[in-house]
Amino acid sequence: MALAEQFLLDALAYLECALGFVSYVLLRVVGSPYGRYASPHSAFPVPARAAWVLQELPSLALPLLACAGARAERLNRWPNCILLGMFLIHYAQRTLIFSLLIRGGKPTPLYSFVLAFVFCTYNGYLQSRYLSQYAVYSDDWVTDPRFLTGFVLWLAGLLINIHSDHVLRNLRKPGETGYKIPRGGLFEYVSAANYFGEVVEWCGYALASWSVQGWAFALFTFCTLVTRAQQHHQWYLDKFEDYPKFRKAMIPFLF
Q: Which regions span the lipid bilayer (predicted)?
């Protein structure tokens, strides 16, 4: 039974890689249908705050259930605990803090909400089950250069993501409407600093975990966010005549 589930987790990881490439192609063709790009005529829109809480919740709840499970055999090892903790911290912030700080926010189309919920359930199960039951690390893995470098990247990406969300959230003063050019932090170099932070964060997690499950998540994140970043970047260029031309879409000095 254990061998069968381990095979399943590997298969799900490879499938996540494939889904990442499919998502990249589809989003390049149709764009990201949420936020400012969502049709005002979308059926059954979900309020922004409720959508964020509910769609992200599986990636918070499933690791917590794994921690509470009596048979979480691998969580008696520090590397497994720290890696699962890294995953939990991100989704606790997204589910319980980020969502509650949303100011207004456009409703999310129902189909976008459902897709996000399904992905968070899929990936939440994949990461939490793998780390709690099957990932084997030696006790000194926490001193391995791959783990240490990955942890630093994860922490840097998390902080960039949180700071960038703060910048976006405070672009408008109370009572103001309309869009503004983001400034400060990595927004001086890229149009989607929040996405850059999240990509760095999950690449760090993947490096620290050194697993196909971790790298599948990082690849999927990159494939979906790079297309959104390019869409944002083009929108800013079209919207604002004075938009800084030297800014890149997501990766500073590259693209």
A: 7-30, 82-102, 108-126, 147-164, 205-226
Calculate the alpha carbon distances from 244 to 159, 181, 232, 249 in Å: 24, 9, 14, 11
Per the structure block, which two tokens stand in for 32? 């990201």
pLDDT the model gives residue 13: 98
The Cβ of residue 129 has, within 10 Å, a number of other Cβ atoms equal to 23
Q: Are 190 and 168 in contact (CB under 8 A)?
A: no
Q: Which residues contact 100 (CB under 8 A, 6 or more apart)?
A: 49
Torsional sign, CA 76, 93, 62, 192? negative
116-172 confidence digits (pLDDT tens): 999 999 999 999 999 999 999 999 999 999 999 999 999 999 999 999 999 999 988
Q: What 3-state class would DSSP assign to 106?
A: coil
Tell me the C-alpha distance between 48 and 52, whole Å.
6
